[in-house]
Amino acid sequence: MNTIVRKQMSINTDVMDMLNNQIAMEMKASASYLAMASWCDQRELLNSKAFFYKQAEEEREHAMKIFTFINDNGGAAISPSVTNVNNDFESLRAIYETGLEQEIAVTESIFKIFKAARKADDFITEVFLQWFISEQSEEEDTFRSIIDVFDLMEGMPLKMIDERLPKE
Amino acid sequence: MPVKNVVNTNNSYQIQHITFCKYALITPNKIINLSFPQMLELRRKINALTTYSALNSIIDNENFVLLFVADKQHLIFLEIPQLLKLKDEIAAFFQEAVLA
Ligand SMILES: [Fe+2]
Ligand SMILES: [Fe+2]
C-alpha cells in the first residue's frame, strides 16, 4: 500500500465501507437497548433498566470509536440513519434473549471485517478490531449469565429476578 | 498541468490524479477539481447509486441521475452507461492502494 491513495488514507476503502456499516449496526444496537431500557423503566425493573441504559451508552461509544478511527485514518465516516427500532416486547427474558442475539450478530459482523482487513493487508484495522473482539466475548458472556439466572429462578416473581441481575 | 491536455472524446467521466491531494473528475464538458474527501464522497454516492435496486429504480424512472459533486459546487448528469463506467473508474482508482 504505497501508492496515491495510501498517502491520503491508511486503511483499505472496502474495509472502510464495512466499518461504516458497523457504525450503523452499533447505533442500531444502542437504539434497541434504549427501547429495552424504557420497557424496564416503565415496569420499575430497576437493575434491568440500569443495565440497558448502560448498554445503550456503551454501544454509542463503540460506534464513536469506529467513527473517529475512520476519520483519523483519512477515511470518511458516515453518520448513519437508524430506523425500525422495536419498542414492543413480550417479557424481560425475551428482552435479554434478543440482546444476546444482537450481540452474536455484532460479533459475527466484527469477524467479517477482521477477515476482510487481514485479506487486504490492512493491519491498522486488524489491530484496531482486536479490542472489539475481546469486548464481544465479554458481552456475550454477560448476556448468557443473565439468561442462566432466569433458568435458575424460573417461576419467581419478575421483580425478585430483577434484583438478582447485574446493573451493568 | 497535465489535466489540461485531456481530450474527452468518448462521452465518459474519468478520474485523474493531479498533485498530492488534488484530483480531477473529467466530464464530457468540464473538469471538476476534487479533494480527497470529495473523492471519497463521490465514491460513496456512485456506489449507492449502482446497487441492483438503485439501478432498477433509476431505469424505472427518469433513466438518468443528477449528482452533486465537490461539496455541491457542481452538478453532473449521468446516464446509466456513464454511471456504470464511472463506478469502475473509481473502483480502479481505489484498487491501486491494495494492489501495490
Ligand atoms: Fe458494541
Ligand atoms: Fe454490545
Automatic annotation (TrEMBL), chain A:
Gene Ontology terms, MF aspect: ferric iron binding; ferrous iron binding; oxidoreductase activity
Residues given in the record as Fe cation binding sites: E26, E59, H62, E103, Q136
Broadest EC class assigned to this enzyme: oxidoreductase
BP term (GO), one: iron ion transport
EC number(s) from the headed UniProt entry: 1.16.3.2
Entry's localization field: Cytoplasm
InterPro entries the record matches: Ferritin (IPR001519), Ferritin-like (IPR012347), Ferritin-like_diiron (IPR009040), Ferritin-like_SF (IPR009078), Ferritin_DPS_dom (IPR008331), Ferritin_prok (IPR041719)
A Gene Ontology cellular-component term: cytoplasm
Name by which UniProt lists this protein: Ferritin
Organism name: Seonamhaeicola algicola
